[in-house]
Amino acid sequence: MRRREFLPGLGCALVFGASRAARAQAAKPFRIGIFQTGSSPGRAQRFKSRLGELGYSEGRDYVLDVKAHLGRIERLPELAASLVQSLPDLILAAGPEAVLKAAVSATRSIPIVFIAVDYDPVTLGYVAGLPRPGGNLTGVFLRQVELTAKRVDLLTEALPGVTDLAVFADAFTTDESGQMRAAEAAAGRLGVRLLPLSLPGAPSFDFAAAIETSRERGAGAVLALMSPALFFDRERFVQALTGRRMPASFGLREFAEIGGLMSYGANLTEMYRRAADYADRIIKGAKPGDLPVEQPTKFELVINLNTARQFGLKMPLPLLVRADEVIE
Known about the structure:
About 40% of the residues lie in helices and about 20% in strands. The protein is α/β, with parallel strands linked by helices.
């Protein structure tokens, strides 16, 4: 049951028929390269759907070139270079800082719109400032540090009897990301012990072994740090958790929708749609450096009550009331 809508629009009016007229005069379609986690068409479809609402037609007004790293961090420089060599007019970089870093290293001239980047792009040195980024980059980023701490709070509220949490990390969630430090700070405040566990071998994680190791160490639940590799492999991950009745918290609703216990974070679909708004402005002649970088201001708590029942868990009523969606 959905209770609220998330991620407000850009703070400016968009002219909905102008895009089609502008591209009709162009000599060739606008070339958009998408640099993302998986090869599934679902995420690109969200982007294309919004472009359609703005008056664009794929093939006539724009063409897409999708490069998917399939959760393998070592392939990022190679794929970014390949994408740049195809000479796109715009690159959509979707994912954590490692994805954006590879795209920035490959080009300083092609416009880049980033989404779901986990860290402050000003601190990272990618943009001069959020209101006026300068250079060839703009987009939407998340403050994963604050979101990770909040997820620890919510998980301990959902499972008040659990005192030991396993934290699953991988090559995309290094100490530099701040996610682990945020989890440790929140756990210290709540009197909860964290059991960090690194998952080697993307994209073929041995989730079953990791879960069993965590349980042997005393973990009663799992906090999965945000990672494109884990997102790419989310079906196997969730199946391994549900098969072993291990409660877990995630940063995106896509995990809860397929059986994960709960998630808290921004809406990925809306971020892809926001990227299309940026693309529209750039196609019309705007410079990325003049378009303000945004952050989601609304976040959604999703609880899979069906999974809770399968695990024999009784979710606290105040938490269910606050949830933005409860899956039954």
